[in-house]
């Protein structure tokens, strides 16, 4: 292809584009530093065991729209290439929580429904996966708080075995 020759002659490389939502692009260095300072502070004040340090994050799953793959010509010294896109209005969200020791808690699957069909819930699946719903499939304060109250706290309480062991749950600040 002519593009490959052009890239070689002009010290460009062809890179696959990473799609990022607008809200993820505009995080500032000040915000990142503030988060890392708070995290460092927490580690200095508490003696966390790896099995009680949890990272919780959500991701979009099962997108039914086929996404186009884009490539960009970019200077060789530029590490990442991204394209900003608007939020997808309706999707399915998966909230995953993993500890620093490698163990995991049941994930939360949020489907874009007005009601949840009980026949979808088999006990073989529900030991590792919790289901909820919302009009657009986004995680909300309400379904996150329900997950913390009904899943996270009871499982952590059981793991702590009546010991006063500190627990850290790290999650992002998406609104």
UniProtKB/TrEMBL annotation:
GO molecular-function term, one example from the UniProt record: DNA binding
Pfam family, one: DDE_1
Residue stretches making up the DDE-1 domain: 92-174
Domain of life: Eukaryota
Cellular component, GO annotation: nucleus
Name under which the protein is recorded: Tigger transposable element-derived protein
Species annotation: Anaeramoeba flamelloides
């Amino acid at each position: 292809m002519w593009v490959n020759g052009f890239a070689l002659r002009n010290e460009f490389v062809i890179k696959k584009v990473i799609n990022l939502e607008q809200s993820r692009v505009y995080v500032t260095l000040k915000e990142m530093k503030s988060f890392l300072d708070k995290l460092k502070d927490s580690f200095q004040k508490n003696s966390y065991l790896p099995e009680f340090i949890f990272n919780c994050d959500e991701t979009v799953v099962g997108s039914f729209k086929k996404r186009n793959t884009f490539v960009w010509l970019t200077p060789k010294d530029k590490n990442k290439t991204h394209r900003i896109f608007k939020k997808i209005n309706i999707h399915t969200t998966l909230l995953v929580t993993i500890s620093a020791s490698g163990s995991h808690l049941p994930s939360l699957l949020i489907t874009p429904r007005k009601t949840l069909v009980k026949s979808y819930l088999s006990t073989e699946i529900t030991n590792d996966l919790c289901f909820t719903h919302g009009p657009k499939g986004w995680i909300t304060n309400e379904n996150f708080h329900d997950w913390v109250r009904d899943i996270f706290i009871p499982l952590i309480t059981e793991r702590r075995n009546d010991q006063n062991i500190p627990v850290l749950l790290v999650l992002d600040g998406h609104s």
